[in-house]
Amino acid sequence: MAKRGPYGKGIERRQQILDGALRTIAERGFHATSLAELADAVGLSQSGLLHYFGSKEQLFIAVLRRRDELDLAAMGEPSPESLIALIRRNTEVPGLIELFTHMQAAAADPRHPAHEYMREHYERGTEGFARLLRGMQENGSLPAHVDPVAMATAFIALTDGLQSRWLIDPALDMTAHLELCWERFTARPWMRPGHETR
Amino acid sequence: MAKRGPYGKGIERRQQILDGALRTIAERGFHATSLAELADAVGLSQSGLLHYFGSKEQLFIAVLRRRDELDLAAMGEPSPESLIALIRRNTEVPGLIELFTHMQAAAADPRHPAHEYMREHYERGTEGFARLLRGMQENGSLPAHVDPVAMATAFIALTDGLQSRWLIDPALDMTAHLELCWERFTARPWMRPGHETR
DNA sequence: GTCTATATCTGGATAGAC
DNA sequence: GTCTATCCAGATATAGAC
Predict the structure, then answer these.
(1) What is the CB neighbour count within 10 angstroms for residue A93?
(2) In this structure, is residue B1 part of a structural domain?
(3) B101-136: pLDDT as tens digits
(4) Which of residues 11-40 of A touch B (CB under 8 A)?
(5) A36, A111, B10, B95: which has the fewest Cβ within 10 Å?
(6) In CATH, what number is assigned to the domain containing residue B112?
(7) Is pLDDT above 80 for B10?
(8) Structural domain of residue B163, as residue ranges?
(9) A67 part of a folded domain
């Protein structure tokens, strides 16, 4: 697996560090996570970390990218169920959600390094979700009238919003709300003849 | 309007400062907004500000509370339309949305001063929205089957998520998505007999 | 009540040895 | 590639005069 040649070792090590950071942030939360603590956790000095990632922000972004990879791999065959299961699993790693939320806020500044990442993240996510929806429409398990991109956008926004709120109020049942909304979104819009909507 | 007695002046001044900060953050954005800049903008020294608000976080929270007040007042009679109009108006003050998003992220830490504010904010918001929905059910403009609290929760989460994303990608048409979702949520669920949902 | 000046502190980044 | 040591910037918070 390790690439041969001059950069093999570094890349491998980088991966290890990333996974260590991922675990640490997941467990201990994002707040009170300075470079020093992160370095400690992976058994490296502060500058050791910086040697690999240049800056704190870039390290965080790398962590986020890595998580995206892992999530994608863990999901396997995309389906509404596997997506909701993913959200449910995220419940076990609040620190990562916290990290994401902070980076999301920071990314509002176009000059912030997370800006680019977030744009990609959303583009990939929306596209992937929309593809799933299109597939469902083709095999008839989703009504043809829904616009896949609009629905994907809304669902991702809903998920983000629920996660942010859940961090503040862990009693919130995210999956219940997601399932309810999914059902409402996919319901066939046919009315009984003679009834107006309002 | 100014209260008489020893605290009248202070309270009044506090209000002025708050409105100044509100305007400043709205215009210039949240990033690159330090205490010093805020103090400058309202024609006060850094410690002048702190005299009134104790700390930066508390000032920010006061700003957020103030905005909640103004929003509530500006909305007048609550209705789906006025809510969506509010979101549309928010488009003109991205800095305030940015502030909210940052505080939302920070509030994940229960020890952070914004934690308490956010809990209240969501409780008030959900309750108010649910009350509106209940009213609509009573006068028949909303189907009786929807659970007002669940729908309010979902809608607020959706709004938050759309706003966070809009900061990153201002091309996103928030109101269009909200209107679409509103329509999907309130659609009557009756199916044509003989059709399964999936 | 408001200002000036300053203390303090946190944490990210850098230089250079090994 | 990794560490130690140091630096430095930025920002908050405080002390005390006016």
Answers:
(1) 17
(2) no
(3) 999 999 999 999 999 999 999 999 999 999 999 999
(4) 29-31
(5) A111
(6) 1.10.357.10
(7) no
(8) 58-186
(9) yes
